[in-house]
């Protein structure tokens, strides 16, 4: 009997008294207490391992300092990081120069590229060579003794001229401005990549001009070249003058005159070389003279000369 009395359910008076004193109190279950514990542990872990803003800044600075090598593909990949809309906007800016609108500040916006200048120069090279060959063919097609042969050497000459102008002239100008800045002039200087970008996009206007040069009207051809020189030259003047004008007046006028003169020389040289009129050969007179000379040396002519006729 004693063992059965021990197994009976007994009420704890102290717990009943506590519940009677605070009827709104609730007793959490074991599962609820475990869930609260796990939540608190996870939040404490997040607070412990959450990175600070200073750590983020140091990581970004370390990534910026890790630049790729000059001989790797990743080094040049940044120069082609542009989309179609940016390239079209820069082409539009080179075709429509506005006073007070700098091409570098308004179009490049500290993000120069080599994609646009490279393909603009390549397109201009093939456009000049093909249009020059077509112009030569259209000029000579009326001659019966004309046999057309493509002039592939024009592609080589156009490539050398265009790419040397688009790279060597900006290199010389960049070196001159850095020399003047280091000497005694305090001014901002564009980077070499920005100068290449300016010259490359300024040549875009010559692509449609070279196609329109196929029209065999001399005054129209020269009118087109004047318009092309005016548009592309305005881009160069409006872009470089804010940088050059801080120099002395004679030096600023001298360097600006060189920039404009080289640009005009390139346009006129391409017009005269690739679209020159073919030389008229005197094939018929030469054939006539050779025929008459042969007739003079026939036996009948020799006998007539001996008889004194």
From TrEMBL:
InterPro entries listed in its UniProt record: Yip1_dom (IPR006977), Yip5/YIPF1/YIPF2 (IPR039765)
Q: Which GO terms describe its molecular function?
A: small GTPase binding
**Annotated ranges, domain Yip1:** 98-267
Principal location listed in the UniProt entry? Golgi
Q: Which Pfam families match?
A: Yip1
Show the GO cellular component annotation of the record.
Answer: Golgi medial cisterna; Golgi membrane; Golgi trans cisterna; trans-Golgi network; transport vesicle
Q: Where in the cell is it found?
A: Golgi apparatus membrane; Golgi apparatus, cis-Golgi network membrane
Keywords of the record, alphabetical order, are:
Membrane, Transmembrane, Transmembrane helix
GO aspect biological process, one term: vesicle-mediated transport
Q: Which residues cross the membrane?
A: 114-134, 155-177, 189-215, 222-242, 254-274
Query: Membrane topology per the record?
Result: Multi-pass membrane protein
Q: Which family does it belong to?
A: Belongs to the YIP1 family.
Task: Please state what the protein is called.
Answer: Protein YIPF
């Amino acid at each position: 009997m004693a063992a059965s009395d021990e197994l009976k359910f007994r009420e704890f008076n102290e717990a009943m008294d506590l519940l009677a004193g605070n009827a709104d109190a609730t007793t959490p279950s074991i599962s609820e207490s475990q869930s609260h514990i796990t939540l608190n542990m996870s939040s404490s872990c997040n607070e412990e391992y959450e990175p600070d803003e200073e750590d983020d800044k140091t990581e970004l600075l370390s990534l910026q300092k890790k630049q790729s090598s000059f001989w790797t593909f990743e080094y040049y990949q940044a120069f082609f990081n542009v989309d179609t809309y940016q390239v079209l906007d820069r082409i539009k800016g080179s075709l429509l120069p506005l006073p007070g609108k700098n091409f570098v500040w308004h179009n490049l916006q500290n993000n120069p590229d080599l994609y646009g200048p490279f393909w603009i120069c390549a397109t201009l090279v093939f456009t000049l060579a093909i249009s020059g060959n077509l112009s030569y063919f259209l000029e000579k097609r009326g001659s019966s003794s004309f046999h057309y042969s493509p002039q592939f050497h024009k592609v080589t000459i156009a490539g050398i001229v265009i790419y040397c102008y688009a790279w060597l002239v900006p290199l010389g100008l960049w070196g001159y401005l850095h020399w003047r800045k280091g000497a005694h002039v305090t001014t901002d200087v564009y980077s070499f990549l920005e100068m290449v970008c300016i010259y490359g996009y300024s040549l875009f206007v010559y692509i449609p001009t070279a196609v329109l040069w196929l029209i065999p009207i001399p005054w129209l051809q020269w009118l087109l070249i004047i318009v092309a020189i005016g548009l592309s030259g305005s881009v160069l003047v409006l872009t470089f003058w804010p940088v050059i004008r801080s120099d002395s007046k004679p030096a600023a006028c001298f360097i600006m005159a060189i920039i404009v003169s080289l640009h005009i020389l390139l346009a006129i040289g391409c017009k005269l070389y690739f679209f020159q009129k073919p030389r008229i050969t005197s094939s018929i007179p030469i054939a006539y003279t050779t025929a008459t000379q042969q007739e003079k040396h026939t036996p009948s002519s020799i006998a007539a000369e001996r008889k004194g006729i």
